[in-house]
Structures are given as structure tokens and as C-alpha cells.
Amino acid sequence: MSVVGVDFGTLNTVIAVARNRGVDVITNEVSNRATPSLVGFGPKSRYLGEAAKTQEISNLKNTVSSLKRLAGRSINDPDVQIEQQFVSSLLVDVGGQVGAEVSYLGKKERFSATQLTAMFLSKIKQTAQNELKLPVADIVISVPAWFTDGQRRSLLDAADIAGLKPLRVMNDTTAAALGYGITKLDLPGPEEKPRRVAFIDIGHADYACSIVEFKKGELSVKATAYDRHFGGRDFNLALVNHFQKEFKGKYKIDINENPKAMVRVEAAAEKLKKILSANQQAPMNIESLMNDIDVTAMITRQEFEALVEPLLARATIPLEQALAEAKLDKDDIDVIELVGGCTRVPSLKERIQSFFSKQLSFTLNQDEAVARGCAFSCAILSPAFKVRDFAVQDIVNYPIEFSWEKDVDIPDEDTSLTVFNRGNVLPSTKILTFYRKQPFDLEARYAKPEDLPGKMSPFIGRFSVKGVKADPKTEFMICKLKARVNIHGVLNVESGYYVEDQEVEEEVKDDGDKKDADAMDTDDGKGDKPKTRKVKKQVRKGDLPIVSGTTSLDESSKNSLTEKEAAMLMEDKLVADTEEKKNELETYIYDMRNKLDEQYADFASDEEKDKLRSKLTDSEDWLYEDGEDATKAVYVAKMDEIRAMAGPIAQRYFDKVEADRQALQAKLDAEAAAKKAAAEEARKSTETEKPDANKDEEMTDAEGTKPEVEEPQS
User: Fold this and answer.
1) Beta strands 4-8 and 138-143: pairing type?
2) CATH number listed for the domain at residues 4-194+360-388
3) How far apart are CA 12 and CA 6, in angstroms?
4) CB atoms within 10 A of CB 526
5) Using CA atoms, how far apart are residues 648 and 382, in angstroms rounded to an integer?
6) Contact (Cβ atoms closer than 8 angstroms) between residue 127 and residue 84
7) Looking at beta carbons, which pairs linking 91-99 to residues 24 or more positions away fall under 8 Å?
8) CATH class of 555-664
9) Going along 560-687, which residue ranges are E strands?
């Protein structure tokens, strides 16, 4: 089993995995550590990730970007209109949800944002599986803190369609905070003052600031503020608008009239912005931008900062909001940690540093911190890994209220109640109590629609409580409903049950209170029977079925989309395999032609060579004329034909090679045997010539004269 963390970005997506007692960021098929968040469509198959980026300029109308920011929105959302200027494909309505109209397999198709996100997540899943050589299911995905219930549900549905199991949908800044805190061994203890860190995440499209308190083994988010339209792409847009005016005056061309020219200038602006982060000026040179005109331009850092001054003026607003909500001052913040690619812009760093009047910290990898935090979270939540315990306490970002129809028998009853307030701990559970005679409905909505992104619908869900019947004694049923904002930040009414008021005997402690003693059964002082008293308690009597109606896809729709995604995956695989066989055939033709003139030259007759050359030429002509769009089976058949003709020639060559190999091996074996025999002979000869020391001693004793021993005379 594997655990994967995914930083699902507007521009790029980073994948991190827990392995080797740590967390690694993995590379994709072209060895990049970040995969473009793009989905493209072609006449034969889809292009996902890097393939979509390669095809983007030539396939603009069929390439969809900003997948994350489209999820869970409707076509009438004002933010969708803003996204259209960054998305090259046409955005349309698809079953009440925003989607894209593209040309796929030669036909006009419409795919919802949920489907498009599922397609991209399928690619992320495949990339992770190719790296790990293991099946991938458990993941944690990051989202901006301002995502609503509907947007989070859309992402969960997309993951289900892609065959993934999200263990948590995690806020970007919370993921970065986890990656920061879990590796720190010097965090304060439970009784000490917490360490307060401001995490500032400025990415390609949005800006978020979270104030987080750390103690040993836990983190607690105190406040999060954000600007949904402040990021790298807004800095790029300022440059593009500047050059659009310059080129119009200097070269008499308007890039707004040419989408391809616009995309090329945007790509150049992205590079230029990065150059200006380290240099005082940067050039722009684009060949044949439009109408065969080459363009050149130069811009200084001062000019760039002047262009983005309206953006820089907004840089401190989220910081002020986060501090105000956390009820803290600037001096209360111990560390200011910056993540996100846009935090490399020098003027932006200066604004943030001057606001806090203290040094900024860059201990985390700005591009990979969120993905690493997600991988840590996935490892903590997965039973497959043993990780140091680290509690993560996030907050609810929008207040949630429940409303219901007024009961005529309860004239003073309120018909709405704010159950979860902004800043409440997440995950969080509340028990709601209703007195009802018959089944009823609850509607959950956001209490302050004006705070929602793009004036989205405040509707969250409708929950129908079934099985309610009036109690003959009390003329109503006491209904208890369990409402929960779960670990994903998604609201559900998870269960319902009904209770009855009953008198039960409860054991009490003897505290010497006479009033209590009079109410106790003492059994006349005989024995040690515990003292009890009768109290009224609500006793659970049974469950109440709940039918939920939320923005999530129903099971039948989800199953249908899952089948479509599986079919498209098979189509993509077939096209990829067909292209591979086509390239294999082309390579085989050139390889065989070279071998026929070199390796196989002495193993084929002139007639065989002419016949095989003719076959290779015919196959090559077919490949470039009629075989461009052939099926996989045809390419395999063509290769088999050539192999059948070249087989006898190749066999003769391999027979000769094998014979030479055996002859060489026999020669080597003979030489080795001769060496061994010579060595053995030398050993025997040495043993024969060596004198026997014991024998010499015996001969000396035998031939020498022994001394005489005289007996003593008496």
C-alpha cells in the first residue's frame, strides 16, 4: 500500500509520497517535479498533464486549464467569467455545473468541471503508480481555505470517479503548517506558551494567510484570511497588458486578436517575471509572434513594480484580517513562513516584511511544502504507516445555519439556527433537538452569502427526517439529529434518533445533604445497598432514517461517469500502444536496412537482399502514405511480414555467431585445461624432488657409531 499527498494547483500539481522513512516528491514521465494542471482533447485521444502542455498552443480551443477553480461552480458565477480570460476553451453549462465544450474524437463534446478534474486526477494516479510500482488509492488533496461545501464535494466526486480514496481534503496553509510542525522537535510543551506562526501562501491564482499555534504534537489554526484573485497570473496579466499596448504602438499588431499570440506572450511574461526576481532588467524576444513579425522589448524591475502597484497595495489586507480574527497583534507572531512561487517577487516580500517589521522565514520548500504536508497527513490517517502522532485542528471558514418549516403548534418557535460559526473547530459535531409530530425537512445553507466566493449559491443540502410519529403521551416525538462538519470540511446530517423522557434510578454519593437523604432509599439502614434517587432522563428508543439531498453526485450518475472515464482510459491506452507499434515498425525498417548492408551482408544472396530491400521500401512507403492512421493490429502484421522474410538471413547470422562463440569457448576451455594439467604436473614434480627429512635422520643413526657405555666397577 502507498500513501500520496497531492498539491492540486491552478497552474501545476505536485505529488509527494511517504516512503523510506520520509516524504519524497516524485517526478513525472519527463522528470519534472510538477505536472501542468491541464486536460486536452484530440482527434484520437486525450492529452493529460505534460502532453496537454506540449499540445497547448496548437490545440488552444480543446485545452482546459484552471480545473481547480472551476470545480463546483455554475456558469453564472461571476468568478467563472473571470476564469474565462485565463481558460482558452469555451466554458458552457453542463447539467447545472460549469464545463467546457471541446472537440474530441472528431465530435463536439461537453465535459463538466467534475469530469475534467477526474481525468486529471487519473493522470496523477497513474504517475504515482508508475513511480511507486504499487497500486495507489489513499490520497490527501489540498484546496484553498475559501473552498465551499459544493466545491469540496465536487473534488471528492472527481476523486471517486478516478478510483481514488481521499482520506482528507485539506486546506493549503494547514498542509504547509503540518509539514512545518511535524519535523520540529523543539515545540513548546502543553503548559508553555504556544509558538505562533503566520503561514503566507501566494500561488499562481490566490493568496492565503493562516495564523497557527503549535505545541508539542499538535497544531491549531486560529484564523485564515484570503484574497481569491491575487497570485502569479495577475502579475503576468499586468505584463501582458503592458506589452499588448507596446506592440500595438511599435509593431502595429494587437495580440488580443490572436489567441496563440496571447498565449505565447503570457508564457514569455512568466519567464520574464522570474528573471526580474533576480535581476534589475529583463528582455523579451519572440520570433514570428503574429503576421510574421518578430518582437523585442525590455523592461526594468522598477517598471514592473509600477505596473503591479495596485496588486501590491492589497498585499497586507489578508494579513490584517487574519490577525484581527485571531485577536493577535503583529508582535505576537513568532515566525512568518512564506510558501508559494509568487512569494519570490522581491517587492511582495518587502511589503510583507515591512508589515510585520521582522525577518521572513523560508525554511519550507516554496513549491513543494503543501504536497509534503498532504503526504504527512495521508501517512497519519492511513493504517499502513506508523507516524509520530500529530493532531491537526482546522477551523470552519463560513458560518452554517439550518432552517425548517414552522410548526403551527409551537407559535414562538424559531425557524433557523446558526449551528456552526466561523472559527469553530473542524471536524466538529453538534446535536440538534426537535419536537415534531410528523416527518420534516431541514435545509442547510451558509449564513452569510455575501462572504462566499463569486456570490455562489449559499445552499448546502436538504435533509428529510423520516419515521417521525407523535407519542400518544406527549403528542410529539423528541428527535435528535447529529450534524457534523467532517474532516473534509463537508457538512452532513449523519444520523437521527428519537428519545423518550423516563424516570430512572441513579446512584448518588452521600454528601451529607439532608435534602438528598430524604429522597434516598436506605433500606432501613440494613445492609450496604447503594443510595439512589429517581431522575428524569432522555432514553434513546430508536433510529430515524434521513434522506440527504446535497450537491454531491448521486450513485447512478457517479457510476456512469466512472464507466465513461474507464472507457476513455482504455481508448487512450490503445492509442498510445498503437503509436508505440507504429514507431517500432519505423525503427525496425531502418534498423533492418542498415543490418542488411553490414551485419547480414555475408549471410544473404543477392536475390534475398533485393527481395528484402524491396519489402522494406514498400513498407516504408505505406507507413508514410497510407499507414498514418492504421490500427495496432495492422502495424504488428506488417512487422511480422518483414520478420518472416528476414528470419532466415538473421538465423544464419546468429548461427555463425553461435558457432564462433562455441569455437571460442572450446578454445578457452582447452587452454584452461592445458594450464590446469601443466600446473598439476609441476606440483607432482616438486613433490618427487623434495628430500625426506625423516629418512635422512634414520640413515645417519644407522650408519654412524654409537658411543659405548661402561658399567661402573665395584
Assistant:
1) parallel
2) 3.30.420.40
3) 11
4) 7
5) 58
6) no
7) 97/72, 97/73, 97/154, 98/70, 98/73, 98/74, 99/70
8) mainly alpha
9) none
Report the run of H or E that residue 163 belongs to, with start and end.
Answer: none
Tens-place pLDDT, residues 619-635:
999 988 888 888 889 99
Q: Give me the torsion for CA of 131, 136, 139, 142, rounded to 10°.
A: 50
Beta bridge partners of 300: 281
CA 224 – CA 208 distance, rounded (Å): 7
> Predicted confidence band at 408 (pLDDT cuts at 50, 70, 90)?
low
Q: Which residues make up the CATH 3.30.420.40 domain(s) of the chain?
A: 4-194+360-388
Topology, domain 396-550: Substrate Binding Domain Of DNAk; Chain A, domain 1 (2.60.34)
- Residue 520, Cβ density class (10 Å: 0-12 exposed, 13-18 middle, ≥19 buried): middle
Question: Which residue, 287, 232, 282, 280, is CA-closest to 265?
Answer: 287
- The x, y and z cell numbers of residue 622, run together, are 505505406
**CATH superfamily membership of 232-312:** ATPase, substrate binding domain, subdomain 4 (3.90.640.10)
pLDDT tens-digit series, residues 118-176:
999 999 999 999 999 999 999 999 999 999 999 999 999 999 999 999 999 999 999 99
The tally of CA atoms less than 13 A away on the side-chain side of residue 282 is: 18
Supply the DSSP symbol for 449: G
C-alpha grid cell, residue 421 = 460559526
CATH 1.20.1270.10 region(s) of the chain? 555-664
Alpha-carbon gap, residue 576 to 569, rounded angstroms: 10
